[in-house]
Amino acid sequence: MTTRFPATHAALLGIVFAASGFILWSAVSASASLNNLVVAVPVAAVLGILVLLVIAGTFRKPVDESAKTGVWGDLLLLAGFAAFCFALTHIGFDVATFVFVWAGVVMSGGRGLWQPPLYAALFTVLLVKGFGSLFPYPMLTLVL
Amino acid sequence: MIDHFALSQAFGLLFTSIEPWLWVIPGLLIGLIFGSIPGLQISMAMAVFLPVTFGMDFLQAMLFLTAIFTGGAYGGGVTAILMNIPGSSSSIATAFDGYPMARQGKHNEALGLGLAASVIGAFVGYILLLLLINPLATLVLKIGPMEMVVVVLWGLTLIATLNDGSLSKGLLAGFFGLMLSQIGMSTTGVMRTTVGNPHLLDGIPVVPAMIGIFAASELLRLRGSSYLVQDEAQRDISFGRILRGVGETFRYPGVLIRGSLIGAVIGAIPGVGSSVANLVSYGEAKRTSRTPETFGKGAPEGVIAAESANSSSEGGSMTALLALGIPGGAATAVLLAAFSFHNIIGGPSFIRNQTDVVYSIILGNLGQVVLLAVIGLMMLRVLGMVVRVPLAYLVPSVLAMCAWGGYGITGTIAGPLTVAAFAAVGWLMRRNDYPVAAAVIGLLLGRMMEGELVRTLQISNGQPLNYLLERPMALGLFVFMVIVLVGAPLLKTLRQRKVQQVEN
């Protein structure tokens, strides 16, 4: 199936445009001196042109989306990953890691009833006792 | 150039007892482990083990800490090849071709190429340091912000060459990275885009962003596959094939020597170092290659160029430390701390009065490089096992380590959240054929570029072009850069036309 403008591409260009616009606005409102804008203004101007060029290019060459599957699966794992990152310092590194690895293994096709949770538990212990002990910062844990 | 008496004393210091070497192998192993785990930095390893050196004599302490430095520089390349996770910013370019090689089942060869290029690069870097420490120190003192602008600009030109399919997409990714580098407090102390969040005062943390955009986004893409290497027959960890990769490195002597020289010279520039050296070297290898279209798809030259440059930059970075007492980066800052623990001050007087110790540090590092070749070959068999782990288990495990790595760098929730945010951006970019590496290069070099540009503007009273004409070194570098960027492709086109004319 070919499409002129995939939704993921529109989302990316939207993020680029919105983030660049906000950074430029923030930099200009903070100080309009040359020293402050020496990179931000020329880069934003070139980015604006590039966004237009890419959009024009995309309309000229339709994209084959059929080869790219699994958007929802990827998005689900990505959302889970974001939730895990947030949970690390809120519910504890050990519990968050155990739950994420278990769910991640199952979502990625890991089979068996007891293997994924057993692996997740062993991996979590190894990570907390090994990796965690090297951290120069305090690390919140709930169980370990 | 070499003080022969001091050199013979240095041999005496190093080889009359085993003591200076006792901690070298543990140091290399620590470096390899820290370097190959995303989020654990070489400088962090050196800082963690710094107190261990209290009980050692100065030379032993130096060899132990520099062994961590040497092992870590190579360890970062191993994960870049096997999992597309550059252990540090100095291994970004290694992932460009190393990872595609691994996915094609050539992980053994890629690891061998990386090891040999690292060993040769580090060797060349330290030999140059031994021969040229005094002239290099004079050169470093002449480098000002204008020269830095030219060097960083050179690194940034790689952005334009990273996407063969669409130049505008490559540039867009790179400029987006540059724009993101403008978040946080500017060089002149102006707050921009911090949205009241104290975590953004220093800008976006580059290493967590790099982990997210490179590794996490790639892992999401791998989710549907069963193994990193699909063909079961290719999943072997073969010592013979690793050695074949080692041998293949010497089929590209030009790439190897050029990468090593670029690394040693750029590495000597404080604050720039290996982060830029590997990019410039990779860019030059691609520009001068007869088959530039293979770069990014598993070209051995790409791995050799990147690894030789980042390893030789280690020798370069020691120049400023030993000759001037200036740390070029976080790792050399830890070495400087070790200097002060032992009541030693780096700089011209150190070189003049304790030449034998300086030479023994350099010679000791040359010895470490040989040991790295042996230890590296042994460790590669263990590290290479990753290709045998089913992706259903590998993907969530490495994703979890990515988030932990983000925390390990910042010590706050900002690290893991940066990893997650950039994983999403990276996923969107990869899905739409944008080169994620270009965005990382922009983010990494943007802030450096801004700082040096502002300093240049201030020094030149707003007349940077006139100032460029007054700086022969900057002008020379600029002219050389233009010749390389424009001249090499022009020559290649002319040569191709001639060949076509002869064929017709």
Task: Provide key terms for this protein.
heterodimer, A: about 140 residues, mainly alpha, 2 domains, two-stranded antiparallel ribbon, 2 strands, flat, B: about 500 residues, two-stranded antiparallel sheet, globular
What does this structure look like?
The complex is a heterodimer of chains A (144) and B (504). Chain A has 144 residues and is mainly alpha-helical. Chain A has helices at residues 7-30, 34-37, 40-60, 71-91, 93-107, 115-131; strands at 2-3, 63-64. Chain A folds into two domains: 2-64; 71-134, no CATH class. In chain A, helix 1 packs antiparallel against helix 3, helix 4 (71-91) runs antiparallel to helix 5 (93-107) and helix 5 (93-107) runs antiparallel to helix 6 (115-131). Chain B has 504 residues and is mainly α. Chain B folds into two domains: 4-464, no CATH class; 471-504. Helix content of chain B is 72%, strand content 1%. Chain B contains 21 helices and two strands. Chain B has a two-stranded antiparallel ribbon. The mean pLDDT of chain B is 84. Chains A and B meet through helix 1, helix 2, helix 3, helix 4 and helix 5 of A and helix 3, helix 8, strand 2, helix 9 and helix 17 of B.
